[in-house]
Amino acid sequence: MVEYHLKLTLLGPGSVGKTSLLNRFINNQFSQSYRMTMGVDFLNKKVKFKEDEVTLTIWDVGGQERFKTMRSNYYSGTSGALLIFDLTRPDTFQKVINTWYPELLKYCGNDVPFILIGNKLDLIKEIGSTIKKNKALEFANEKNSIYIQTSAKTGQSVEEAFTELTKKAALKNKIHLN
């Protein structure tokens, strides 16, 4: 067995569910209470692929505007990113496109792999989606990425999102997972 290490970074505006996605992925838990990330938090998880093991260090970057000046420090060593927006708040999608994506490229380079995430899928039935799925798909396709809708609350597609990003980041880093 071969062991690899990758740094994944969760990016997006405040209150889109970055911390909730991370807690669902790491601990398979969801909390209804909101806790703002102050700057950055990070957790580790070992993920097994047939014969290989990848230790993921996942950085959860605070999305509030007041942390913007500190964020450049958190990008160093990023192997891949989840760009996350809230499916019920259209402004968060625009912020991912106009702020977070350009910032990711600025600090990590044009070839950094990312997955576009529309989170809070569980709220669509009661609130309704304000983001046209084809707009998100179009953006991801144009940037040679993929788009996944997730729910940290139910766990829907959370594992898939992290697995797909791990595969993309491994490939970019010339790691061939078995």
Topology overview:
Blueprint: E1 2-11, H1 18-27, E2 40-49, E3 52-61, H2 68-71, E4 80-86, H3 90-108, E5 114-119, H4 124-127, H5 133-142, E6 146-149, H6 158-172
General description of the model:
By secondary structure, this protein is of the alpha/beta class. It has one domain (2-172): 3-Layer(aba) Sandwich (Rossmann fold), CATH 3.40.50. Helix content is 35%, strand content 26%. The chain has helices spanning 18-27, 68-71, 90-108, 124-127, 133-142, 158-172, and strands at 2-11, 40-49, 52-61, 80-86, 114-119, 146-149. Strands 2-3-1-4-5-6 form a 6-stranded mixed β-sheet, sandwiched between helices. It is globular, with a radius of gyration of 15 Å.
**Name of the level-1 CATH class:** Alpha Beta
Shape-level CATH architecture? 3-Layer(aba) Sandwich
Main-sheet strand order equals 2-3-1-4-5-6
Biggest sheet record: 6 strands, mixed
**Number of discrete helical segments:** 6
Q: Whole-number average pLDDT? A: 88
Examine the coordinates and then state which fold CATH places here, giving the name of the CATH topology.
Rossmann fold
Order of helices and strands: EHEEHEHEHHEH
Quickly give the structural class. alpha/beta
Number of separate domains: 1
Bin the strand percentage: 25-35%
Span of the ends, CA to CA: 9 Å
Number of strands: 6
Low-confidence segments, ≥5 residues, pLDDT <50?
none
Q: Calculate Rg over CA atoms.
A: 15 Å
- Helicity level: 25-40%
Shape: globular
What is the assembly state of the chains in this entry?
A: single chain
Question: Any idea what the CATH superfamily is called?
Answer: P-loop containing nucleotide triphosphate hydrolases
